[in-house]
Specification:
467 residues; 22 helices; binds beta-D-glucopyranose; globular; single chain
Length: 467
């Protein structure tokens, strides 16, 4: 590198290419946020058995103990946008790492239920915020051709976090330990996220949005170096246009309203197809289906968890090749079919429906993991222009957590009121609606730069001829 260039970089504190970090590494570090999202939502299922005794929980207080984290996540998801814009992606992730770590340790020493619930809400704040901050950060550092794959790392981490939480619960339970170490273990990932983020760069697009162009240029060279001038020009153009419209209101303008509808629609459908009734209540459903002992029900659940992880790995390979739309369309139809099957299995009320139920669940989870699981979070981070990306992703995430909360708290009562078959058929209807919604409204963003996607909305949902 020329001497002057070296001096210029030193002057702005920018990294030297020799110290370049691979975008894969950066995406993997940020995805520890997803790992914590998965772990901290999954850990409660096994811990609940012990909490019940420690805090003498009844049915209602159990439900509250489970949903406290969702309440925190709803609040965290809505705070995330402003925080992410004000502090920057990197500092926000560092702050979230501190919240995860302190939250995990405090939960583990909770002396009573009230203290425990407050801690779970705090951890929830971190989860809800990380859910949109991580995809936004990765989408902004990734080259267009790898963006789907790199953002999907986060979904992989979520599924691994859920699976690991089951195993950790099982291991501590076997070792005769109670719920405290189950929650404390999350601190390890929290510390790893903090240390990893210390060496990761700030998002070039956030730097540009603050007018820090020298650093933007250095960061783009640092992490990608592909078509530097073109990319800088695109970012410049996107930021200088309509600057005066900054903020949430811009998302309501006719140009961007459709992007918001796509973000929020995908968010709601991701939950209304019933995914978390499987994630949170699978052991209960398996017991009803004939896996009588708790351990066989938990084992069947772990099989579903592993299928979720494996199918997400396949999604990573497909999302930038096959594209987002085909995955959404195929996935929603297959989920609907599997749910119809589940309804039929439960309606026939036969004696031994355990293995059929397991097969239907596996088909369902594989379809989810190939479609709405990763693609919603990915699109929520790529469909909004840089000026409003963090806010748009945060609103979509808020819709997702709220829908998650609604489905989770009504599921058991729904089964009580209309029966298991009708409940699964209801979710199947949402699968069909999700298909229609994706067919009509969701654009194919595969291989497009974030700035091209922005122009798509500006051109009334047409791609630039030149693009
Ligand atoms: C969803 C979560 C769900 C998880 C399951 C995520 O994309 O947002 O609600 O528990 O996938 O893998």
């Amino acid at each position: 590198m020329a001497f002057q260039e070296r001096e210029r970089r030193d002057a702005i504190g920018a990294p030297h290419p020799s110290r370049s970090l691979s975008v894969y590494f950066i995406a993997a570090v940020a995805s520890i946020g997803g790992l914590l999202f998965g772990y901290d939502t999954g850990v409660i299922s096994g811990a609940l058995l012990f909490l019940r005794q420690s805090f003498a929980l009844n049915a209602t207080t159990q439900e509250i103990a489970v949903s406290a984290v969702l309440v925190g996540a709803i609040i965290g998801s809505i705070l995330a946008g402003r925080l992410n814009d004000a502090l920057g992606r990197k500092k926000t992730l560092l702050l979230l790492a501190v919240i995860f770590t302190v939250g995990a340790l405090l939960t583990a020493i909770a002396p009573n239920l009230a203290f425990f619930l407050v801690c779970r809400v705090i951890v929830g704040l971190g989860i809800g915020a990380a859910a949109s901050v991580v995809p936004v950060y990765i989408s902004e550092i990734a080259p267009a051709r790898l963006r789907g794959r790199l953002v999907t790392f986060n979904q992989l981490a979520i599924t691994v976090g859920i699976a690991v939480s089951y195993w950790v619960d099982l291991a501590f339970a076997h070792a005769g330990l109670d719920w405290r170490p189950m929650f404390a273990s999350a601190a390890i990932a929290g510390i790893a996220l903090f240390l990893g983020m210390l060496i990761c760069p700030e998002s070039p697009r956030w730097l540009a949005s603050k007018g820090r162009w020298d650093e933007t240029r250095a960061m783009i060279e640092h992490i990608k170096g592909e078509q530097l001038e073109q990319e800088l020009a695109d970012i410049h153009r996107s930021l200088s246009e309509a600057r005066q419209q900054m903020g949430v209101r811009e998302l309501l303008t006719p140009r961007l309203r459709m992007a918001l509808i796509v973000g929020v629609g995908l968010a709601v459908f991701q939950q209304f197809v019933g995914i978390n009734t499987v994630i949170y209540y699978a052991p209960t459903i398996f017991q009803r289906a004939g896996f009588a002992s708790a351990s066989s029900a938990i084992l069947a659940t772990s099989v579903v968890g592993v299928a979720n992880v494996l199918a997400t790995i396949v999604a990573i390979l497909l999302v930038d090749r096959v594209g987002r739309r085909k995955l959404l369309l195929g996935g929603s139809l297959i989920m609907a079919l599997a749910l119809v099957m589940l309804g039929i299995i439960f309606a026939r009320n036969a004696a031994n429906i355990g293995s059929l139920t397991l097969i239907a669940f596996i088909v369902y989870i594989v379809a989810f993991a190939l479609s709405f699981g990763p693609v919603f979070w990915l699109m929520s981070a790529e469909i909004f222009p840089t000026r409003v990306r963090a806010i748009g992703a945060s609103i979509s995430s808020f819709a997702n957590w709220t829908a998650n909360f609604l489905v989770s708290i009504t599921f058991l009562s729904l089964i009580g009121a209309i029966g298991a078959p009708a409940t699964f058929w209801l979710f199947a209807c949402f699968g069909v609606l999700a298909f229609i919604f994706s067919w009509i409204l969701v654009p194919e963003t595969k291989g497009r730069s974030l700035e091209q996607i922005e122009r798509y909305w500006e051109n009334r949902r047409h791609w630039d001829k030149a693009a």
